[in-house]
Amino acid sequence: MKKILEINNLKKIYHTPKEEILALDNISFSVNEGEFISIVGPSGCGKSTILSILSNLLNKSSGEINLKNNYIMAYMLQNDSLLPFRTVLDNCLIGLEIQHLLNEENKNYVINLLNTYGLGEFINKYPNSLSGGMRQRCALIRTLAVRPDILLLDEATSALDYQSRLAISDDIYNIIKKEGKTAIMVTHDIAQAISMSDKVIVLSKRPATIKSIYEINLTNKSTPTENRKANNFNYYYDMIWSDLDVNI
Amino acid sequence: MLIFSEEHKDYLNAIRREKRIILFWRVILIFIFLLLWEFGAQYEIINTFLFSSPTRIVKTIILLFKREELINNISITIAEVLISFIFATVIGIFIATIMWFKKRFAKIIDPYITIINSLPKVALGPLIIIWVGASINSIVFMAITISVFTTIINIYSGFISVDNDYLVMIKSFGASKWQIYKKIIFPSNLENIITTLKINISLSLIGVIMGELLVSKKGLGYLIMYGSQVFNLDLVISSIFILGFISYVMYLLVDRLLIYIQKKRY
User: Fold this and answer.
1) Which residue among B172, B188, B265 sits closest to A55, beta carbon to beta carbon?
2) Contact A208, A179 (CB under 8 A)
């Protein structure tokens, strides 16, 4: 498989008037094309910081990020952040507008995505007419609109209730696989990570370092919800749980 | 056509009935007030020289209307209010925008804006008259001074309280500061801006009347001032009534604009 992203010795220090906080230290991993990678770790350890750095929202303190030439990353947040005064279509086009890439072809591509993923009849409606799951799907299409090669998913389903989360995980997974995208997902949900990913990266408590990386080889791999029934699902779950070192 | 159950019809009727009751009592309230006032005047319980009476007010208004004084004075006051309102709004939005773009500038001028805003602007009246001259200019200037700072403060605080998630979302696409303003900050604040306009229209009116009281030879403020100087209190009270009516109509117009925009947007 083709390696498309390599992260070496990534380090991030936050500065506040009172102190310096080392958030990430010595983070190194690589991503192959078409892979689905999850990053799990104790809450507040700095999982999301990695994605913020990858999407240029934050500067890294040191380290290297090597993205294969001409590859694009796009970021999807926990909240759908759909603008209430824009229609569903206009919400999905905002990334293209920002990057001055809005033309007929790209617009049709987005309309196509909306039609394919069940939002066709809502194209000219406003987000307040969408359900929670539809909003998340709409946010995903907004991210896909700029045709990224790598999707960065930051707790993309954690604002939803449990049932919706399962359904949307399937949804997001299917869309990403169907569109042939690579994904890096940050989540606090171990089960979700195992059920969706090819690889799970476990981070330690702050300062976050990589504790272990698991290649997930579930028996009878299919949709995330089905994957939860795999024989060796619990095996991975137990190992990652013990690595996480959760103290309440 | 939707078909409702009997229960739902009852529910809708109850809402309509409640609205009618409120309207009924509003009318009754003003009616009783006018009636008592008129009654008091007719039976000399109150001194009509000081307190006038509804019929005297109506007569005064008709008289003013016939002498074309009324329309003249009203249009001058409205023109002054509109000019000040437009200037204050444009200047206010402009400065709030600069403050949003230049955080350091915002921090530097923040205490000064707060100080000037809390200053009773009436105190500046005499100074403004000396600086700008006893003309329509000083009236407009005074009205702008009264409303512009509130505009800046309200609009700027709206700009900086836009949900951070929207900003993260648009920044993740690589948006420039101008794009963030154009696509998120300004459109998210449209309702806030119109709410500020509602406050602004009343503040402009206050400013204009204050200016007219101080310097003018025309306008409703002048009528009030003139009336009080010649002890024609019918004129004073009539002008106040007209003023209340104008201010309500202006407020209503801006309010309709807000409702129109909200309907159009969602």
Assistant:
1) B172
2) no
Distance from the Cα of B202 to chain A's closest Cα (Å) equals 28
- Summarize pLDDT for B223-266 with one digit per residue, the tens: 999 999 998 899 999 999 999 999 899 889 988 988 888 887 76
The stretches of chain B forming alpha helices (DSSP H) are: 6-42, 48-51, 54-66, 69-101, 103-118, 125-132, 136-160, 164-172, 177-180, 186-188, 190-215, 220-229, 233-265
Cα separation of B179 and B204, whole Å? 32
More confident residue, B107 or A166: B107
Average pLDDT score over chain A: 90
Mutation to test the A interface, candidates B173, B261, B263, B265, most A Cβ within 10 Å = B173
Q: Kindly state the average pLDDT of the residues A70-78.
A: 89
Q: What is the pLDDT of residues B200-225, one digit of tens each?
A: 988 999 999 999 988 878 888 999 99
Q: Establish if B171 touches chain A: CB-CB under 8 angstroms.
A: yes
The highest-level CATH class for domain B55-265 is mainly alpha
Reference B143, options B161, B112, B165, B121; nearest CA is B121
**Closest C-alpha among A82, A75, A38, A72 to residue A57:** A75
A-B contacts (CB, under 8 Å): 47
Q: Which residues pair with A202 in a beta bridge?
A: A40, A212
Peptide bond into B120 cis (omega under 30): no
**pTM: predicted TM-score of the whole model, two decimal places:** 0.85
Residue A140: phi and psi, rounded to 5, are -65, -40
Domain map of chain A by residue range? 3-244
Q: CB-based contacts of B263: which residues, under 8 Å, 6+ apart?
A: none
Q: Phi and psi at residue B32, in whole multiples of 5°?
A: -60, -40
Question: A145 CB near a chain B CB, below 8 Å?
Answer: no
Option in B165, B175, B179 nearest A81 (CB): B165
pLDDT tens digit sequence for B101-141: 999 999 999 999 999 989 988 888 888 888 988 888 999 99
Q: Is the pLDDT of residue A65 over 60?
A: yes
Q: What percent of chain A clears pLDDT 70, i.e. is strictly above it?
A: 98
User: Which amino acid would we find at residue B8?
Assistant: H
Q: What is the DSSP letter of B81?
A: H
What are the residues facing A199 on neighbouring strands? A37, A215
| 3-state DSSP assignment of residue A209 | coil
> For A96, which residue in chain B has the nearest alpha carbon?
B173
Architecture of domain A3-244: 3-Layer(aba) Sandwich (3.40)
Residue A206 or B90, more confident: B90
| Whether ipTM exceeds 0.95 | no
Q: Find chain A residues with C-beta within 8 A of B166's C-beta.
A: 81, 83
DSSP conformational letter for B122: G
